[in-house]
Amino acid sequence: MIILLLFVAFTILAIASLAGPLYLLLRKTTYGRYPVELSLALFPASIVLTGSLLGHVHAKNFHPTWILPALMAGVFTTAWVLYSHRDRLGAAARSNGPRIAMLLVLAILAGLVVVPRQLAEGKLGYLEFMNGEFLNYSQLAVFSQGHQQSDLPTAFLTQHQTARDGTDFLNVALARLARAEPVDIVQLTSALLRLSYCSLCLLVIWEIRTRTLGGSLLSAVLLLGFVFWNFDIYAFQISFMAANAASGVFVLLVVMLATAKYIPPVPFLCLSCLGNLFLLVTYPEIMPFLKICELAYFLERAISRTKEHVRWTLPLANLCVFLINPTLVLRKIRFVYDLLQANAGWNFLGSPIDDAPVYIQRIFGLRYNFVPSQPMIAPLPTLAVLLVGLALLGWGCGCLSRRAHTKIIWLVPAGLLWFHLAPLMGPPDAAPRQFYGAAKFTLLWAWLAPLSVAAALPWIRSRAGLMIMTVLLGALLTCNLAVQWKAVAFALRLPTFYSQPMRKNFLDRIKNRSSRVAIASEQTIPLWYWFQVLDAAGLRPIVLSQMQANLIARAPSAPFSPPTLPSPYGEMITLVQPTKLLWFSRLDIIEVEDSTERFNKMTSANLTVRAGKLLLAAPQVDLHEADLMDRTTAN
C-alpha cells in the first residue's frame, strides 16, 4: 500500500506544483495543451534544479525543506490558474480528459511494473537482481546525507558526486519522506523516474497517431507496447539512475528542437536553459548527443536561411547556461572528455560477434538477462525481425523528417550504425570489443522506434493494409509478453528481497552480540548491500577480503569482476536457483574485538580465521521471511 500511496502522492504533487506555471509559460505554444503530462515529466528535474540552486549546490549540502517554498509557490500558481482560466480549462478538460486519464494510468503502470516484489509484499526493501548499480546510488545518498560511517568508499563517492549529482537529491528527498534508508528506496525512485519518462514518451506517441479508427488502434497498441517493451530495463536502464533521470528531459529537448518553429522565443529559451542545466547536473555524458543535434539543426537552418528564431535562441540559450553556472559547465566538459578516453562499461546486451541472435533479441526486448526463459524466436526469424525493424525505423525516420521539416532525425540511425560497427573496426587481435556504447545509445533512443512506426504506418492508404500492419506491429511489440509475465513471477519469488522488517531483525541480533563486525562473502554485490546496512547502523563493518575492499573503495588496482573467494570458515552455503541464473553466497558476519592486533591475526594467512566467532549467516533459498530469524544460525 505504501508504494501505491507514494506513486499517487508523486503524481498529485507534480501536477499541483507544476501544471499552473507550465500553463502560463506555454499557453501560447503548441505545448500549452499538455500541462498535466509535462508537469509529471518535469517534476524530478524541478526538484533537482531547485534543490541544487541551478547546479551551484551539491546534494551533500541539500535539505528537502529547501524545495518547500518552490512547491508552495507552484501549488498557489496552479490554484490561481485554475480559478482565473476556469472556463478555458474546463472546456479543455472535457475534450482532453479521457486522453489525460489514460496516459496517466499507463505511465503509473509503467512505473509500478518494475517494483513487483515491493508491491506484492507491501514493504519497502531492496530487491537484488544481479545488479550493483542500485547499491552505488544508495551509498551515494547515504554519503550525501552525512550518515556514512566508513571512509572506505569515500574517494569514489566524492568523485562520483562531482560527475553525476542529480539523482542524489531525489533519493535523499524520498528516503526522508518515506523515513527509510536509501538502500530501501532506490528502486522506488527509479520506478517513479520511469513514470515521468514514460508519461512524456506516451504523450509524443499519442500525438503523432492518425485520427482514424485504424490510427486509434495503432496508437493503443503502441502505447501499451511501450509500457512493456524492453522489460529488461528493470535490470539495466532504470538501475542506471542518472541516465534514467535524464532521459525524459533529453526527449523533451530533442522534440522541442524539432518543433522549434512552433514555440515562441521566451519559452524556448527558458526550457532550453533549465533542461541543459539539469542534464549537466544529472548526466553530463548525454550532452554530446544533444549538442550534435543542436549544431546540426542550427547549421541546417542557417544554410536554408529560414527566418526562425532558433538561429539566435540556440546560441543565446547555451551562452545563458554558461553564464548561470560557468564552473559547472567547465567541470562537466572536463569529465566528459576524460570519460571518452576511458574504456568502461559492461556489455549487458551481449556481443554481436559471440552470439548475434541473442544480441538482437535483447535489443528488441525479446529476451532478458537473468530471467529463466528460452528465446521466443529462432535465429532466422530473429534476422527477419531485425530487417523489418530497421526498415520500419528508416521509413519512420523519413516520415518524421518530412513532418518536422528537418534532417536531424537521420542522425539517430547513423549514430546507431556507427556505435554498433565501430567496435568491429581494427585488427582482430586488438583490445576487447566494447559494445557498451552501442547498448547505451540504443536505450537512449529507444523511444524513437515506436514514434517512427507511428509516423510511418499512416502513409499506408488502404485501411486493410493499415490494419494488417497494426496487427503485425502488435505481435512484434507484445510477443514477449509471456516472457514479461515470467519475469514478473520470477521477481516475486526471488529469495533476495531484503525488506525493512527482516533487516531490522538481523541488525537487532547483531547489536546484541557485538559493536563491531567483519564481513565476508564470495560475491561482492550481497557484501556491498550488507556493508551499507551495517555501516548505516553504526557497526563500522570491516571487509575481510582486501580484494573486495578494493572493489568497494574503487581502488585503481581493483579488478572489475572478482574471482570466487575461498571460504575462511569451511564450506560456504551458496544460494543457487535451478536455472543457475541467480546465485549468491552466504554472508558470514564475524564478531570482532576492538583490538587491532587480534583483528590482524584473524584476517591473516589467506583469510583463515584465528579468532572471532561466526555471528550470523544469511538464509538458504527455501527460507521465508516469516521463519527467517528462527532458522538463522547464531553460534
Q: Helix tally?
A: 27
**Class per helix and strand makeup:** mainly alpha
Beta-strand level of the residues, as a percent range?
A: under 5%
- How many strands appear in the DSSP assignment? 8
Distance between the termini: 38 Å
* Coarse shape: globular
Oligomer: single chain
Profile the largest sheet.
4 strands, mixed
The percent of residues in helical segments reads 55-70%
Radius of gyration: 26 Å
Mean pLDDT: 76
Low-confidence stretches: 560-586, 593-635
**Strands of the largest sheet, in order across it?**
4-3-7-8
Structure write-up:
The chain has helices at residues 2-26, 35-51, 68-84, 86-112, 116-121, 133-145, 154-163, 166-178, 182-207, 213-228, 241-258, 265-282, 287-304, 310-324, 326-340, 356-363, 379-404, 411-421, 436-444, 448-456, 463-478, 481-492, 500-511, 524-536, 546-553, 596-602, 604-607, and strands at residues 125-127, 497-499, 517-520, 542-543, 574-576, 583-585, 588-591, 614-617. It is mainly alpha-helical. Helix 4 (86-112) crosses helix 10 (213-228) and helix 6 crosses helix 9. The chain is globular and about 70 Å long. Mean pLDDT is 76; it is low at 560-586 and 593-635.
Main features:
635 residues, mainly alpha, 27 helices, 8 strands, 61% helix, globular, disordered C terminus
